[in-house]
Amino acid sequence: MDIFIEPIGELINAFTKLPGVGTKTAQRFAYKIINMSKEEAEAFANSVLECKRKIHYCKVCGNYTDKEVCSICSNRKKDVICVVKEPKDIIAIEKMHEFDGVYHVLHGTLKPSENVGPKDITIDALLERIERDGVKEVIMATNPDYDGEITAMYVSSKIKPLGVKVTRLANGMPIGSDIEYTDEITLMRAFKDRKEL
């Protein structure tokens, strides 16, 4: 006999697909929704659906936006590009209130062991932007782990022949950490002490 009736079991199963949500947390989320008023539950569901309908990638940088071009690409100088692995890394950097350039989201890193190569992430789009926008510096802000380091070195090797300065976030961020979870002070120190590759 199943412990949960089917609709509750399906809701719990849906929540366990979210990162960091185990079965117990999924059960709490499910019961919270069941105990909401119909209006609250509909508003919650509509928020999820609205995000899925309206949010897409910026056609310039690859960040999430609800417009064709995100507000960062629309309003900032384009001569310095900070390259990140995924859109959530931008939020961590923006919390510093120190960086006034634009971003480029790779949507992954090189992973030879999993057959993820240069054509599987947005390196070509980055190179096009560099040539088109008169970029003076590219900051490699991929995670300081094995895949992030390999990606930074590969991208740097493609940019240097273009005569553009390439820097990497300085130490201060522990090896193996994610930018997303790095506190603002450590991230600010790493940004200020970045070195040319």
How do you describe this structure in short?
With 197 residues, this protein is an alpha/beta fold.
Structural features, described:
With 197 residues, the chain is α/β, with parallel strands linked by helices. It has two domains: 6-54, Helicase, Ruva Protein, domain 3, CATH 1.10.8.420; 75-196, Dna Topoisomerase Vi A Subunit, Chain: A, domain 2 (3-Layer(aba) Sandwich), CATH 3.40.1360. The chain is 44% helix and 12% strand. The protein has helices spanning 6-16, 23-34, 38-54, 71-75, 87-94, 123-133, 146-159, 184-192; strands spanning 56-57, 64-65, 80-84, 102-105, 137-140, 165-168, 195-196. A five-stranded mixed beta sheet has the order 4-3-5-6-7. A two-stranded antiparallel sheet has the order 1-2. Helix 1 crosses helix 2 (23-34). The longest helix is centred in the N-terminal third of the chain and has 17 residues, at 38-54. The mean pLDDT is 91.
SSE topology:
Elements lengths: L5 H11 L6 H12 L3 H17 L1 E2 L6 E2 L5 H5 L4 E5 L2 H8 L7 E4 L17 H11 L3 E4 L5 H14 L5 E4 L15 H9 L2 E2 L1
Parallel strand pairs: 3-4, 3-5, 5-6
Antiparallel strand pairs: 1-2, 6-7
Helix pairs in contact: 1-2
Characteristics of this structure?
197 residues, alpha/beta, Helicase, Ruva Protein, domain 3, Dna Topoisomerase Vi A Subunit, Chain: A, domain 2, 2 domains, five-stranded mixed β-sheet, two-stranded antiparallel ribbon, 44% helix
Stretches where pLDDT is under 50 for at least 5 consecutive residues are none
Q: Which range best describes the helical content: under 10%, 10-25%, 25-40%, 40-55%, 55-70% or over 70%?
A: 40-55%
Helix-strand pattern, N to C? HHHEEHEHEHEHEHE
CATH class (first level) name of the largest domain:
Alpha Beta
Globular, elongated, flat, extended or rod-shaped: what is the shape? elongated
Major sheet details: 5 strands, mixed
Backbone structural class: alpha/beta
Q: Report the strand count.
A: 7
How big is the Rg?
20 Å
CATH architecture of the largest domain: 3-Layer(aba) Sandwich
Count of helix runs: 8
How many separate domains? 2
